[in-house]
Design goal:
- The structure is a single chain.
- This protein is an all-alpha fold.
- The chain is 79% helix and 0% strand.
- The protein has 7 helices and no strands.
- Helix 4 packs antiparallel against helix 5 and helix 6 runs antiparallel to helix 7.
- The model has no long low-confidence stretch (mean pLDDT 86).
Length: 191
């Protein structure tokens, strides 16, 4: 089709449907990232809660977040391999990629300067990741990600209302509903 030709409404709907189906297939393959990050952040949140609440060495609690270093490395390597092996990217693929990349870039200064707010960053990060999770669910018409985004938003609000130790418990539960359940659902649909 040349640039001057126009699509009929039926052709437009068919093209949009094909783009969404292709993007859904790629994100289902990307369920790996939801599971990887879901497990890492869930374990870190529950680890913080456990150490702060049930041990006599709370000063070591922040060390649990070092789990995110290998998580970043694995995520970058896996993402690079996926892009090399993937079919040409659709417009939805690029939007989704930039949405999540911008979110990661927004999270970085929150973590870096978290000491300014006594590292009470769970409410901010949970409400922030609600947006790309929810929008990814809308773009791909995948309801578990929609509900995951809502779960992050509600959990972020709850975190603003609870004590600092309880924020880690809420954050861990939010990851289960926001990333792990949708990730396993994506994985089960992959096959």
């Amino acid at each position: 089709m040349t640039r001057d030709e126009h699509l009929t409404p039926e052709q437009s709907l068919d093209l949009i449907g094909k783009m969404i189906a292709q993007a859904q297939g790629k994100v289902r393959q990307g369920g790996f990232h939801f599971l990887l990050w879901g497990w890492a952040i869930t374990l870190a949140n529950f680890g913080m809660y456990y150490i702060l609440t049930f041990t006599s060495f709370p000063q070591y609690a922040p060390a649990v977040w070092f789990i995110t270093i290998p998580t970043w490395i694995i995520s970058i390597i896996h993402g690079s391999r996926q892009r090399r092996e993937a079919n040409p990217q659709t417009h939805l693929d690029r939007i989704t990629m930039w949405l999540w990349l911008c979110t990661a870039l927004l999270i970085f200064p929150i973590v870096l300067f978290g000491f300014k707010i006594n590292y009470q960053i769970n409410p901010v990060i949970l409400t922030l990741i609600a947006l790309p999770t929810f929008l990814t669910g809308i773009m791909l018409r995948f309801k578990p990600l929609l509900f995951g985004g809502i779960s992050f938003f509600v959990s972020g609000i709850i975190c603003f209302m609870v004590g600092s130790h309880a924020q880690y418990l809420v954050g861990g539960v939010a990851m289960i509903f926001g990333y792990l359940l949708p990730g396993y659902m994506l994985k089960s649909q992959k096959g």
